[in-house]
Predict the structure of Protein AF-9 homolog.
Amino acid sequence: MADKKSNKRIKSLSIHRPFIYGTTARPFDPLRNPKPPGIPDDHTHSWEVFVKGVDDTDITYWLRRVQFKLHESIPNHVRIVDAVPGKPFSLKETGWGEFEITIRLYYVSESNEKPQTLYHHLRLHPYGRTEEEKEEMKNGPDGGVVKSWNYDEQIFNEPYESFYEILTSGAMPASSMKGGKGGGKQKGEKEAKMERSEGGVLARSAMIPLTNRGPEYPFSRETEQCEIEKLKKALVKVEEMTRRTKEEMEKKEKRLKELKAEGAKA
Ligand code: SLL
């Protein structure tokens, strides 16, 4: 075959890669998070915004650059972070207020994909769906650290053949990628054991961790199952409430009929 390969889109195929984006914030505190010298008086928190792989696996084989657009009050508010193989796309700052961060993803050139935009609200203050969740964020083991992390899946529809080849160039143990130069596959790694260790994932795969292994890795099938259970319970509750409301309504309608009948008689 000629060395100039054809490079067509693969029709009716879509492939995805999981990733995590979000923010982590810490209040300044003389003991746990002392304020570095030179930080303005009105800054109350240090924070980080990031885009990374699940279990800190490398994603630079499909993502080459991330642009973070911060609040205009911040000097130099449009920041570009270029890929460093094996490392998350991350930006650290300090400040006093919450705002929406615009995250623009630039894909590797082989993908021929246009950049895409995500929006993420920087959270500095404890929040939650319930008071308990909020309390946990305030006073839990991770006390005061406010995480707002999202799991997402990057979908590539009808990828170009050459890009598809990159994406599927072979899953490998996550450990072989840690701090790895070039992020590429090396000979011999193919032979490495292709099993998940401790419920984790393989690098360059679409795997989702099976189990939770600490607060740094909150996204897994286990968490998903937990959420599903919560939803199921909530659904039962809603059904019970609906049933009761219906009962009440029927009672009231009955009473209304009775009153009407009495009125007609009178
Ligand atoms: C608010 N709408 O009023 C938001 C704006 C802006 C936050 C928050 C400045 C940091 C710096 C900073 O934290 N701005 O000066 O570097 O809450």
Q: What stands out?
A: The beta strands are 14-27, 45-52, 63-69, 78-82, 89-95, 100-107, 116-121, 146-157, 172-173, 202-203. The pocket of SLL is lined by residues 71, 73-74, 95-99 (CB under 6 Å). The mean pLDDT is 88. Residues 155 and 266 are 71 Å apart (CA to CA).
